Amino acid sequence: MDITGVSALVTGGASGIGGAVVRQLAAAGAKVVVADLNDQAGQALADEVGGTFVKVDVTDTAQIQAAVEQARELGDFRVLVNSAGIATAQRTIGRDGEFGSAHDLDAYKKVIAVNLVGTFDAIRLAATAMSHNDPDANGERGAVVNIASVAAFDGQIGQAAYSSSKGGIVGLTLPVARDLAAVGIRVNTVAPGLIDTPIYGEGEDAEAFKAKLGESVLFPKRLGVPAELASMVLECLRNSYMNGEVVRVDGGIRMPPK
């Protein structure tokens, strides 16, 4: 699919992997809507790439729909990238064996609501809009790429909520691709490994910690960078024969229990 001149919506697009996707889409000639909760970073990135910022909480259907409408106003809306997500770490039961110290259920529900339900909500709304597009020469009306995680497969201790949410994204990829095949919309998912984002902090201690983490990667022995993930996202968008697939981009890592 040719993404030159199309309109694209990126949730969680203000920074990290989402931000790298925004930059590469814009560099490829797409008109990008940056959808994020972070006003300052989102607006700054939109200004940088000549895009549009829309404040979006992906647990709010009305806000997602408003972002989709904004993307439609920009032009030929054919691209959705779901990168919005949160993480929490907590063991399933507490050390004292009391009910009250078991995993916080509201925290579990929130991660599922943002990462999984938010992803599906964005897909169903964006795909509805894309279904009105005229098909291109390949019969395509649009393409969706979701960001999951290797935690979907190699969830570590304390990652029950996060792994559940990302595993859900992996699980919906094929059935949703099958649903949307009828209208010529492809769906793929990219599952990152250890990626160098601001979550690790800055300074000497942070760099030492990241270097230590990188030793667990098969090859190359380092953390990935957001641009490497964004490159795979764009390949999934451009390659018209990529559909219903989950692609790990992780340097060959298989995460240990902890």
TrEMBL record:
One Gene Ontology term of the molecular function aspect: oxidoreductase activity
InterPro entries, alphabetized: NAD(P)-bd_dom_sf, Sc_DH/Rdtase_CS, SDR_fam
Keyword RNA-binding recorded: no
Pfam family, one: adh_short
Record carries keyword Oxidoreductase: yes
Keyword terms: Oxidoreductase
Family annotation (SUPFAM superfamilies): NAD(P)-binding Rossmann-fold domains
Similarity comment text for this entry: Belongs to the short-chain dehydrogenases/reductases (SDR) family.
PANTHER family with a match to the protein in the record: 17-BETA-HYDROXYSTEROID DEHYDROGENASE 14-RELATED, SHORT-CHAIN DEHYDROGENASE/REDUCTASE
Protein name (record): SDR family oxidoreductase
